[in-house]
Amino acid sequence: MNKVLDFLKKQSVSTYLTLAAFILALVAMSVYCANGNVEGYFKGTNPGGIITFSVFSVILLAIALVLTQVNVENKTVMLVIRVCSDILKVVAAVFMIVVMMNFIQTRLNGLSYIFFSNDSVKQEVATPINLASAYTAIAGFIIYVIAWLVALVNVYFSFRPVKK
Amino acid sequence: MKTKKLIPLFRGLTATMASVIVLSSVGYTIADANRSLVDTALGTESYITDTSKAKYVNDYATEEELQQATKDFAIREGEEGTVIMKNENTVLPLKGDNTQTVALFGLAGYGPYYGPDKGGNSDSVDLVKALENAGVKLNESVKTMYEKIMNPHEVETVNPWTGEVTGTEIAFDNQANFSAGDYTDFKVTEVPVSMYSNAEWGGENWESSAESDVGIVVFCRPGGEGTTYKPGSGLDYYGNNYGDPLALSPEELALVAKAKELCDKVVVLLNTSCTIEVGQLKSGTYAVDGIAYIGIPNDYQLTGVANVLTGKVNATGALADTYATSSVSSPAMQNFGGGYYADYDTLAVDGSTTRDDRWGNTAISNDVTGSFGGSASYSGGYYIVEAEGIYTGYSYYETRYYDAIMGQGNADSTKGSTQGGAWDYDKEVSYTFGHGLSYIPYTQTITEVNVEDSVDGNITAKVAVHNDGDKTGLFLAQLYVSQPYTQYDKDNLVEKSAIMFLNSKKVEVAAGQTVTVEISVPTKYLASYDYTNAKTYILDEGNYYFTAAAGAHDAVNNVIKAIDSSKEVDGDAQNVKVWNNSAFDNTTYSKSENGMVITNQMDDASLNYWLPGTVTELSRKDWEGTYPKNYNTEVSVAILRSDKAEEWKDELVGKTYEITENGTVENPDGVDLGEKYKFGEANIGQPQLENINDDFWNKLVSQISVNEAIGAVIHGGSTSDVLTNVDNPNVPQADGPTGFKDGRFTNGFRPAVNSQSLLGSSFNPDLAYDWGVLLGNHGLQLKKYEIWGAGLNYHRTPYNGRNTEYLSEDPMLTNVLGAAQIEGSNSKGIIVGPKHIGFNDQEHDRSGICVYMNEQKFRQTDMRGFQGAVEDAGALGMMVAFNRLGATNASHSVGMLKKIIREEWGFNGLISTDMMNNKYYFNAESCIMATITMMADFAQGDNYISKSGDKTAGDSTWSYITIESASKDQALVDQARENLKYQLYAFANSALLNITTERVTPWWDATLQGIFIGSAVLTGLSAAAYVALVVLNTVKKEEE
């Protein structure tokens, strides 16, 4: 337990933010994938290329997280790690907004149709399964916004390797 | 500031600005695709329309004048569409002088059903106001009681996205059910009369103060898009099944009984376009003194209704549908709703072991789902067989009646009888098509008929309308014909209705006077389609009996009397004129008016094409032996059992056409032929307007690149975008048979106030023409030049909720009213596109259901309803139905769209699909080859396969289509350009020729673009600053 507490105490704010961004990106990606694969209105609406951005944003944050645990004497190595970490975090944040905007773009017409059609058409389209799909999409938007904001804030925090 | 502290700032700014690039660029793409919506929301404009050279001008000098004309029309429509079905004991007209107390009963009396597209003007008139304005003294006690029962109160409206309260709307504790549902239980929410004595409502003694001279009870049945009634699914107030939803519920009947108890006389008003069963109101325990049909009114029609009920104007409406004793009694109801093929799922592909090469490794089912989101589906698993043929509505009831009287065809067998025993017309029908009582007694007598026996000829009948009363009034004259049913017809399965409505006219006649009106209709509608032998239209040898009558039953009785005076029917043989065709004719009508040979085009719409001998269609030569069976429950239909299984499967999966390499496309990248070949009045004169084959049109569209030619068709709906090198105007499409639903005058007036149901029951083509002109004026006023504004499908059964947007069960009434409306709007240069061609007979599973029928039914029922508007009146646009014709998506149907509509009927206008909501069902290339000019979506600014022009990039929807693959299919590209030619030709023949649209940049557009550019610059600067600071900091550290 003490070791765990020590370990936690040695981590920087930046590390925790990176971790938070990573977890949120993972959750957001899961919701996005689920929304495009689970039965419902938006099944099959995830373009393959955008999934790649989503996966990469998670991977980049994972790598950035791993890098926070590297603390060596060699200043050149640390400089490279610091710069790489910066780049990874910037790119991850941008990838996340790319996915988020595409997510919104591909759902917008469907959501309009489900929620804003006249009452008769709504009976046809706003079925329980389609509504569940719609609410999942909206939840996904919100999670992506939070994930992106956390990732963006994280960029403003400098890389601090784990204390020795 | 130390460099070290600045590094995180510029790093963060880089990420922030890069994110803003993405936000602004994708945000711009979204906004651009929904430009018109954004403009509407923000009150901006992206296109300025210059009408300074307009050829078509508004008939009204001011908006206020047009507004008043619109209201006046709606009132007139209410007057002319109200049908007095029953009027005994002089219950009607009501005394509009406040001397007679009238108790209004029924939730619909205080909250009528107006349909889903009510205009919504603040000065709209409900029934209470209309009656009171007409001088009717309403029982205040009953009125107050209903206010308590309904308890209108404000509730908050909440934004479903944010949960924020956006405003208020009126809600009710009790209200008539306005939601018919999609083939599910329908609950009649009429409150039990036993509850009226509740202390909060009427109290124990409510009845004593409810006693009145006349009781008016109002019942409604709703409808609308996406709704279909399910036979037998009616629920009462308590949620218990009571029978058919179109029958009166126990609570409704109890209310009638109570009204009869409390009032000296009772009138029931029917607020519906799906016929309600009224047999019990006609005779028996619940018989009332008066029954009137008031349709689905809009904002102002109820004033007109009240004018009729109070006798301010004569009643001239007539039923546009047969009111049968039992709604399921028509043979069409033997096949309604649909069901799956026995082996529908054999078409499914799992994406790995079986694939559809167009879609790669996508798993695709064949369920009815997928048409509105969800799993990928071809949506081709459901079917229905319309085995009743032409015998829908009065064509069935009156023909079988005729045959029963004449003792032929086993007409009086028990088959199809719903009232017990032998089939008996008087038991099966409450009120016939065309029935409608007049306050002023009058007669209509045919005095002469002239038949021009040619495909472009007319039948002209003279009908003497005599006013037997002591007041001047408007009267309705209806023209019918009975065609001979010959041995040839029996041998070759050519069915004939014993009586057929042709056309009608209204005329004002002074008291005691006679006015002779001329009623004409194209002769070609006298011919019948022989799909088995001659495979074209034929005109049988024999006598054609023309008569004028107040309804189909009176008409057929006149004919019976003329044929056999010994028959004991209430007919007038003197009111019949005979025209004799001396010889069988399979030539005169075998070509259309424009010279095209007419022959079978829809053989594959019949199930017998795929599985020979499966279907026996209803024939009057043997009503009993051919009465339809249910081809979903009594017959197993399996696709793989067919000798044409592969062809069948191809149609069901949308492979009507497949992209192939069949030639090199000319000018694949487009070409600019100069100013001489641009859209506009400078280049388009009368020769070009009259002849779509003028070389100008071919040159005009030859300039369009493959990218845009294909893209403009497959993504062209909602708004027709400007085509490069063509410079056509940008044209958004509007919607609705009620009018421009999204249109507002500058003073807020909403002009969408038409009622299709009341237009139908007006039986007045002149009224329909006036509506067309008014709609045209609305378009000019609003600068909206295209609208899907005429619902012309027929009512195959009463159960289709969409009947609210369509006119009648009768194809010819629909034909003449539709033609008149289109003629009116064409005169103002507004493109009014009829919809939904064809056979949208039920909303349930509409997107994909296979509708099977023979070609006589195809041509002489639903299609005939559209033929007048298209072939006779020259409609410039149309929208296709969601369903299939046979196995083929209607939007893929070369037979219907290209062969019949374009070639036979000479249609050179634009054709849109309904909303493209399933890319596996709506196939882009098949739509193009069927001459579709635009596939409907909600976006705009998307008339391309690839926005960047990347030749190998797949289309955003049909990903297998690339510029490269399309460029190798010359037939496809040629057809796409041809389709755009039709579209541009339609634009040119409308007000769009003389207007120009100039694209402007609204502030939101400029802002987004500015943000994009700014953020790109700032990203670069921030990144550069970050790099510089990192380098500086590193150097500094090394120096230290």
Q: Your description of this structure?
A:
The complex is a heterodimer of chains A (164) and B (1040). Chain A is mainly α and 164 residues long. Chain A has one domain (12-38, 47-155). In chain A, 79% of the residues lie in helices and 0% in strands. Chain A has helices at 2-9, 13-37, 48-67, 75-116, 119-125, 128-155. In chain A, helix 2 (13-37) packs antiparallel against helix 3, helix 2 (13-37) runs antiparallel to helix 6 (128-155) and helix 3 packs antiparallel against helix 4 (75-116). The longest helix of chain A has 42 residues, at 75-116. Chain A is elongated, with a radius of gyration of 19 Å. Chain B has 1040 residues and is an alpha/beta fold. Chain B has a 6-stranded mixed beta sheet with strand order 2-12-11-8-3-4, sandwiched between helices. Chain B has a 5-stranded mixed beta sheet with strand order 14-15-31-33-34, with no helix packed on it. A 4-stranded antiparallel beta sheet of chain B has the order 20-19-24-25. The mean pLDDT of chain B is 95. Chains A and B meet through helix 4, helix 5 and helix 6 of A and helix 1 and helix 30 of B.
Question: What can be said about this structure in brief?
Answer:
With 164 residues, chain A is an all-alpha fold. Helices cover 79% and strands 0% of the residues of chain A.
Strand and helix map with partners:
The complex is a heterodimer of chains A (164) and B (1040).
Chain A: H1 2-9, H2 13-37, H3 48-67, H4 75-116, H5 119-125, H6 128-155
Helix pairs in contact in A: 2-3, 2-6, 3-4, 4-6
Chain B: H1 3-33, H2 35-42, E1 47-50, H3 63-81, E2 83-87, E3 101-105, H4 107-110, H5 127-133, E4 137-138, H6 140-150, E5 153-158, E6 165-171, E7 182-187, H7 206-210, E8 212-221, E9 228-235, E10 241-243, H8 250-262, E11 263-272, H9 279-282, E12 290-293, H10 301-309, E13 323-324, E14 339-340, E15 382-385, H11 394-406, H12 425-428, E16 429-431, E17 442-451, E18 458-467, E19 473-482, H13 487-492, E20 500-509, E21 514-522, E22 528-530, E23 536-538, E24 542-548, H14 552-563, E25 576-581, H15 607-610, H16 623-626, H17 645-652, H18 686-690, H19 695-702, H20 706-714, E26 719-720, E27 731-732, E28 734-735, H21 756-762, H22 765-782, E29 786-791, H23 811-826, E30 831-835, E31 850-852, H24 855-860, H25 862-872, E32 877-879, E33 884-885, E34 888-889, H26 894-904, E35 910-915, H27 924-929, E36 934-936, H28 963-967, H29 970-988, E37 996-999, H30 1003-1039
Parallel strand pairs in B: 3-4, 3-8, 7-9, 8-11, 11-12, 15-31, 28-29, 29-30, 31-33, 32-35, 35-36
Antiparallel strand pairs in B: 1-37, 2-12, 5-6, 9-10, 13-16, 14-15, 17-18, 18-21, 19-20, 19-24, 22-23, 24-25, 26-27, 33-34
